[in-house]
Design brief:
five-stranded parallel sheet, binds adenosine-5'-diphosphate, 24% strand, Rossmann fold, binds magnesium ion, two-stranded antiparallel sheet
């Protein structure tokens, strides 16, 4: 259990998943990597003439990355990482694909992911990201439900 991948979207459930990942990391002396994937929109909105505006410029991509870096920073502020070795990674693309890809390319031993993200339908379903990671990953996946207060 050397390397744990924790995909985060900034949601309270991913925060809860992070707490559980820290528990595991403390037991096994593992290193945690936090991964936030920014969905890269190919086309957003339509102009008055019906022409789509394509956001693929370097400036836009950089802006998107900066925004996600802020999200990651704010997220980590809320968490006590004392004594935990960790790093962070921001990627652009389809979240579940990037999560699975990274877990394989960098030989992670475990993925700890939230059961839900920002959606409020908590009862029956897994979120689409967690569901796809669960069915596609080649390493063990620990799915953490939302926190009950
Ligand atoms: N863009 C993302 N980057 C990294 N991890 C993510 C991303 N979106 C979701 N996750 C992870 O997947 C978990 C479940 O989220 P998701 O499947 O998107 O559920 P929902 O449909 O409720 O938003 C989150 O708690 C988080 O751990
Ligand atoms: Mg989501």
């Amino acid at each position: 259990m050397d390397k744990i991948l924790v995909p985060v979207d900034g949601s309270p459930t991913s925060e809860h998943a992070t707490e559980k990942a820290i528990d595991v990391a403390k037991k096994y002396n593992s290193k945690i990597t936090f991964l936030l994937v920014a969905k890269k929109p190919e086309v957003i909105g339509t102009g008055s003439g019906g022409t789509g505006t394509i956001f693929s410029s370097k400036e836009y991509i950089n802006e998107l990355k900066e925004e996600q870096e802020k999200t990651m920073k704010n997220f980590l502020k809320k968490i006590d990482m004392e004594g935990i070795e960790y790093d962070t990674k921001i990627m652009l693309g389809e979240p579940y694909e990037k999560i699975i890809e990274m877990s394989e390319n960098e030989n992670f031993d475990l993925i700890v992911i939230g059961r839900r993200g920002f959606s409020k339908i908590t009862r029956f379903f897994l979120g689409s990201v967690s569901q796809r990671v669960l069915s596609g990953a080649h390493c063990p996946v620990l799915v953490i439900p939302e926190k009950k207060d």
